[in-house]
Design goal:
single chain, eight-stranded antiparallel sheet, 313 residues, Jelly Rolls, 2 helices
């Protein structure tokens, strides 16, 4: 075996030493370079890990946001949740009017049913004096085909049997044609809610608010709202009604004691395509005091508080 060339070995050794000296001069001692390399590796690994976590978070956030948006859209389509659309009619009755109801805060002047002397406004409420067996009420606002109406009302006095009703009008296209939610106060103190329509054209011998009424939903008893008869003070009832679209029109309604919270779900729903009602209309409220003949002991009344109509989703 031939011996290595000493000159060659010497030259390689010198070359290696020069490389080490240059590296030490430029980058520091070997131990420091190892630490720096290790730190660089940790830094690169940390950056990669952070980027991976960030991408994962963004993905989760995107999916969560997408699911939340879909849930919100489904809730809006089902009419769930509070009314949030822009208001087109509203009245808190924050004024004093001796005869009639005057002009609402939003939606124009109230168009009233019957003599204006039966109406007044004071102390944040609109009042109606109602002869037994008759109706009083009013409507206002621009014509709309997608309304979300909320109001609060209470009946007082009237027939000896204590019966009566309050109706939220979700769409009125004429004095005898409308969609309505009726809350009926029975003689036994029970409260029932239902959806109905009146679609008769008004004839020469037909009074306003006297169209033939067609029931569109079941009559549902509102649990926990029965009140004593007939002299006790009746609690105010809040009503919310959605009247959406045409051909067909989707109707939803609920009612609850004004002192409580609004229920999450709709109590009654319906779909209707009555030709006469497939067009925009106004919103309103109508109250009726029941009883005829000997029951007509005295005129009854109704008090209406906050009325707000918004564009339905």
């Amino acid at each position: 075996m031939p011996l290595p060339n000493r000159d060659t070995v010497l030259l390689e050794t010198v070359k290696t030493q020069r490389s080490r000296l240059l590296a030490a001069f430029l980058f520091g001692p070997l131990a420091q370079r190892r630490v720096a390399n290790d730190n660089m590796k940790r830094l690169i690994g940390g950056v990669v890990l952070a980027a991976t976590i960030c991408a994962g978070c963004l993905g989760v956030s995107f999916v969560t946001s997408l699911l939340a948006g879909q849930a919100t859209a489904q809730q809006q389509q089902a009419g769930l949740g509070p009314a949030t659309g822009p208001a087109f009619a509203a009245d808190a009755f924050d004024r004093s009017v001796g005869v009639g109801w005057g002009s609402a805060e939003l939606g124009g002047t109230w168009a009233l049913l019957g003599p204006t002397s039966d109406y007044a406004v004071a102390s944040g409420a609109g009042t109606m004096t109602i002869p037994v067996g008759e109706s009083r009420g009013g409507h206002l606002g621009p014509l709309q085909d997608r309304s979300d109406l909320t109001l609060t009302a209470v009946l007082s006095g009237g027939a000896l049997d204590g019966s009566g009703e309050v109706a939220a009008i979700g769409r009125q296209v004429s004095s005898t044609q409308d969609y309505r939610t009726t809350v009926l106060l029975g003689a036994d103190g029970s409260l029932t809610i239902s959806l109905s329509s009146r679609s008769d054209p008004q004839g020469a011998d037909q009074a306003a608010d006297q169209g033939t009424e067609t029931l569109l939903s079941n009559r549902v008893i509102l649990t926990g709202t029965t009140v004593d008869r007939p002299d006790d003070v009746r609690p105010p009832i809040s009503i919310r009604m959605q009247t959406i679209g045409t051909n067909p029109t989707v109707l939803r309604a609920k009612a609850w004691p004004a002192s409580g919270s609004e229920p999450a779900d709709w109590t009654v729903t319906a779909t209707d395509g009555a030709t006469q009602l497939q067009r925009p209309g106004t919103v309103g409220v109508v109250a009726t005091v029941g009883g005829t003949g000997e029951q007509s002991a005295a005129a009854g009344g109704a008090t209406v508080f906050d009325v707000v109509a918004r564009a339905a989703p």
